[in-house]
């Protein structure tokens, strides 16, 4: 028996039309509060849909019973109230929510505190990431101050407030906090799209919360659209543009940056 033959026999078993024309016309002329009788055929079709699809929605009833959208809604509500079927709309909503939650909370890499053995790799990630994001948008004077040796020296004072992702000696990204600020944040190209950035920003935010910071801030150059989009996706925002003092080996260097904030 093919699928068409099966459907035909099933329809005959449930009787067609499942809802008598007299019931449809009576329902249409009756007050809204009047009860609607559910035919055996309509009930059987609804139960069949629940068994086959784990759900029965008004739209599905409208199709199999060949009734109006309003009548399908009424019948569906009545069947649910009488315990003939479950609320198919609720089932669909729950499935959609589970899918949404699974997409929004993927398994993320584990973070850990940085250690001294990470410093060489972190200096390389910082150097490469800084020049990738800033070299085309900052003065040569500032670029000259950004060399691997100066970054490595600064890292020595940053390790206690730095979280990383990756094995000891070979991290693939890091996030450092300083005061109320996400101070330094870089991820190697190979680790992008793996959840590393999300894991690190959450680790940085946790450090700020643990320090009882209520509103965190970070600085980003206005031209770094990719970074701004990432931060905004994680709840950071702000339009303020200020000349901020960047730390260098020779003292603060003023550079226009966009100030982003987040309530923690």
From TrEMBL:
The keyword Signal applies. Keywords: Signal, Transferase. InterPro entries: Acyl_CoA_acyltransferase, GNAT_dom, TAT_signal. It holds the Pfam family Acetyltransf_1. Residues 1-26 form the signal peptide. One of its GO terms (molecular function) is acyltransferase activity, transferring groups other than amino-acyl groups. It comes from the Bacteria. Residues 109-258 form the N-acetyltransferase domain. This is GNAT family N-acetyltransferase. It comes from Profundibacter amoris.
């Amino acid at each position: 028996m093919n699928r068409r033959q099966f459907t035909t026999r099933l329809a005959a078993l449930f009787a067609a039309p499942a809802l008598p024309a007299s019931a449809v016309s009576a329902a249409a002329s009756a007050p809204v509060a009047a009860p609607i009788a559910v035919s055996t055929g309509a009930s059987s079709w609804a139960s069949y849909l629940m068994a086959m699809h784990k759900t029965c929605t008004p739209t599905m009833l409208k199709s199999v019973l060949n009734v109006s959208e309003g009548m399908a809604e009424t019948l569906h509500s009545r069947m649910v109230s009488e315990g003939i079927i479950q609320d198919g709309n609720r089932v669909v909503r729950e499935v959609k929510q589970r899918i949404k939650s699974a997409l929004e909370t993927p398994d993320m890499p584990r973070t850990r505190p940085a250690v001294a053995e990470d410093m060489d790799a972190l200096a390389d990630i910082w150097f490469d990431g800084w020049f990738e994001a800033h070299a085309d948008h900052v003065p040569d004077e500032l670029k000259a101050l950004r060399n691997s040796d100066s970054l490595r020296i600064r890292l020595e004072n940053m390790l206690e407030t730095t979280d990383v992702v990756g094995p000891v000696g070979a991290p693939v990204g890091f996030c450092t906090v300083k005061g109320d600020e996400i101070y330094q944040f870089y991820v190697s190209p190979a680790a992008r799209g793996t959840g590393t950035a999300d894991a690190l920003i959450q680790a940085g935010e946790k450090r700020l919360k643990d320090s009882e910071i209520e509103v965190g801030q970070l600085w980003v150059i206005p031209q770094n659209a990719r970074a701004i989009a990432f931060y905004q996706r994680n709840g950071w925002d702000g339009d303020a543009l200020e000349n901020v003092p960047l730390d260098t080996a020779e003292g603060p260097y003023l550079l226009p940056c966009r100030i982003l904030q987040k309530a923690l």
